[in-house]
Amino acid sequence: MKKVLEVRGDQATAILSLLKCVATAEGTLELHEVHKATLHAFAEHLFHTEVDVDGLEGTLQGAGDAVADPDLRRDVMNMAGIIPFLEEADKEVRIDTFERLSEAFGFSRKFARELHKLCHGSVTEVSICQIRPLLLESGVKISTAPFKFLKSQLHLDGDRKMLARYEGYRDLPEGMFGRVMTEYYRDNEFPLPGTKGALFSNILMVHDMHHVLTGYPTTPLGETCVIAFADGMMDLDLGKSLIGYVAQFQVGLQFDKGLESWRNQFNPDRVIHAFERGGRATVNFEKYDFDFLPYLEQPLAEVRSKFGIDPEGAIVRGPDDLWCGDMGIVGMRKSPDMVEKKLSWFEKLLAGKNTESDLSS
């Protein structure tokens, strides 16, 4: 469990005051509603306390004494790093305050410099330092990822046994983990794992299981919640990835080239609750060698119970809720909140072969 989930009492109030300092640049900026809602979400889901956000006062002076534990300092920095990317205006000013908090905690300025770069579309450190945990999330080792990508482009990645197994899951009783997985692929119009040339289904099969286990759709909010849940559950630090996804889906700064950029998709209560749910999980299933196969013919509700996954907080709660969410399928969504950008050749390649209809054309 992350240290930040164990904080209570006066220390919780002190940390919330520090986070408010970042949101307001130590009182020089107005506390906007999205920041206020985020501070309330921190209070509820991290510290299990009620707080008068408007009444919080304090400065960054003495921050090192208020938060002495190195792991807790890291957790607080990751939460503070979300704050500058909750609205378009004054990102740089809030990152300057974030940098002063970092210095008070004894960290280098590198983290803050990378957040400044993120404001201008550069994700060098924020992205690269997260390659290993993100590959864990997708179930792909860094040594094999390029080969899997190439095999998919050549349609050499099919697995008949796997495809037959997933086709068989369609006949399982309603509510079984494997049956729900096939409904996830159906709702998103993704080909089943094992299908030749199905790049995303074959490489991201484990990630798709994480969506179903946690109950989050493939919407921008759902993707952010999956990462937040993983960050709360894993010993590895996924905090920079969470910051990146918030930036991509809230203010349109692209962090993951394989996903579209959006605005106004961050829901603080949902995302911070996802982090809490991950922290309360009793089984870490984010491992290369974790074997999901025995669980796929068990009821999903029972698997979640075995893994300590609280059903409260799931967005997809029953068969009437679509796994693609209410935006339609990935790659065919249209919304004024989407950020229209000219795609690179690599992004165009990633965008192709994404649905059943693409594969048959």
Quickly list its features:
mainly alpha, 19 helices, 361 residues, 2 domains
Q: Can you give me a brief rundown of this structure?
A:
By secondary structure, the chain is mainly α. The protein has helices at 9-24, 33-46, 63-66, 70-82, 91-104, 110-119, 124-128, 131-138, 145-153, 160-169, 177-188, 199-203, 205-214, 220-233, 239-250, 268-280, 300-307, 345-351, 356-360.
SSE inventory with pairings:
Blueprint: H1 9-24, H2 33-46, H3 63-66, H4 70-82, H5 91-104, H6 110-119, H7 124-128, H8 131-138, H9 145-153, H10 160-169, H11 177-188, H12 199-203, H13 205-214, H14 220-233, H15 239-250, H16 268-280, H17 300-307, H18 345-351, H19 356-360
Helix pairs in contact: 1-2, 1-5, 2-16, 4-15, 5-6, 11-13, 14-15, 14-16
Report on the architecture of this protein:
The model has no long low-confidence stretch (mean pLDDT 88). Helix 1 packs across helix 5. This protein has 361 residues and is mainly α. The termini are far apart. It folds into two domains: 118 residues; 230 residues, no CATH class. Helices cover 52% and strands 0% of the residues.
